[in-house]
């Protein structure tokens, strides 16, 4: 048999070429690397499962507390907004359905009452029966159109950047209250007036509006809404805002006292006697003394 040189990389076995056997040290090294990779893979899988389990736990906690509180808040909010903005498009506002539920929301009901006031203003004796008055013997339809244009003119002040708007009224004690309104609040009021003008045009009958009863309904409707807001703060762990929610009535009373004090100070300033100027005798440099 012919012996092959040691420089040759292959040896003949049964007439075929075969790679030389891998050295034992190299084999052990490869086995070690493979084992290390297996361990790393197992560790990564375990860590991944652990992260999934942690996320699942956090998700369950979130669903059981925060998410549940958010869902409860959304239900209460929808009930308030639905009652606030519910709209009946008929020309005869039905205050109640056969099942007793109301067809009219608070905002539309207030607009219906406002529509009566607008019509009463146009039809007032001073406007309808005095020659020279723009409303003199004017039909209600063009009279309401006059009011619509005047409303849009005021809206033009808002859109033009005017921010000098004030709400002025006298409270039940006879004290005049005046506060500045942002232009956005004025725009909201003007949109409400446009709705009232529309109702004045189209309503075949005017519903009876009781604002005392409406206030009671609003307070009753907002109670679960506020309670849900508190519950969400509690679930989110906000302790300070939760305490402040419990103290809002106290804050309202303090603001009212501060406002009354400010009005009283302004009233006292207006009633202070003004000092009369002393007469000055011209030509007497010594002020009358000799």
Structural write-up:
This protein is mainly alpha-helical. It has a domain at 24-42 and 92-208. It has 8 helices and 4 strands. The chain has helices spanning 24-85, 106-122, 125-128, 140-159, 183-202, 211-236, 239-246, 248-271, and strands spanning 10-13, 16-19, 165-170, 176-181. The strands form 2 sheets. It has a two-stranded antiparallel ribbon with strand order 1-2. Strands 3-4 form a two-stranded antiparallel ribbon. Strand 3 and strand 4 form a beta hairpin. Helix 2 (106-122) packs across helix 5 and helix 4 (140-159) packs antiparallel against helix 5. Residues 1-17 and 47-61 have low confidence and may be disordered. The chain crosses the membrane at residues 27-47. Residues 279-290 have a biased composition (Basic and acidic residues). Keywords: Membrane, Transmembrane, Transmembrane helix. Residues 268-290 are annotated as: Disordered.
Give short descriptive properties of this protein.
290 residues, mainly alpha, two-stranded antiparallel ribbon, transmembrane, membrane, transmembrane helix
Number of helices: 8
Low-confidence stretches: 1-17, 47-61
| Gross geometry | extended
Average pLDDT taken over every residue: 81
Order of secondary-structure elements: EEHHHHEEHHHH
Q: Please tell me how large the radius of gyration is.
A: 42 Å
Tell me what portion of residues adopts beta-strand conformation. 5-15%
Taking the alpha carbons of the first and last residues, their distance comes to: 159 Å
Strand element count: 4
Helix content: 55-70%
Helix/strand/pairing category? mainly alpha
Neighbour order of strands in the largest sheet: 1-2
> What does the main sheet amount to?
2 strands, antiparallel
């Amino acid at each position: 048999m012919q012996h092959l040189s040691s420089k040759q990389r292959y040896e003949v076995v049964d007439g075929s070429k075969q790679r030389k056997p891998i050295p034992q040290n190299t084999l052990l090294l490869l086995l070690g690397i493979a084992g290390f990779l297996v361990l790393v893979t197992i560790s990564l899988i375990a860590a991944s499962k652990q992260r999934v389990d942690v996320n699942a736990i956090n998700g369950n906690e979130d669903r059981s507390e925060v998410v549940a509180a958010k869902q409860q808040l959304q239900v209460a909010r929808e009930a308030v907004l639905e009652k606030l903005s519910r709209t009946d498009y008929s020309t005869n506002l039905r205050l109640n359905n056969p099942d007793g539920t109301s067809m009219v929301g608070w905002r539309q009901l207030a607009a219906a009452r406002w529509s009566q006031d607008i019509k009463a203003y146009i039809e007032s004796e001073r406007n309808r029966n005095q020659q020279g008055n723009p409303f003199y013997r004017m039909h209600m339809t063009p009279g309401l159109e006059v009011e619509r244009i005047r409303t849009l003119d005021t809206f033009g002040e808002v859109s033009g950047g005017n921010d000098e708007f004030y709400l002025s009224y006298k409270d039940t004690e006879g004290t005049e209250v005046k506060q500045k309104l942002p232009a956005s609040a004025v725009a909201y009021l003007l949109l409400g007036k446009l709705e009232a003008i529309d109702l004045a045009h189209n309503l075949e009958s005017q519903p009876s509006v009781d604002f005392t009863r409406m206030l009671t309904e609003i307070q009753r409707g907002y109670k679960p809404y506020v309670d849900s807001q508190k519950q969400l703060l509690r679930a989110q762990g906000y302790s300070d805002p939760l305490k402040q929610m419990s103290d809002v009535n106290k804050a309202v009373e303090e603001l009212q006292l501060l406002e009354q004090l400010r009005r009283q100070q302004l009233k006292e300033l207006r009633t202070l006697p003004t000092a009369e100027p002393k007469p000055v005798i011209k030509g007497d440099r010594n002020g009358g003394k000799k």
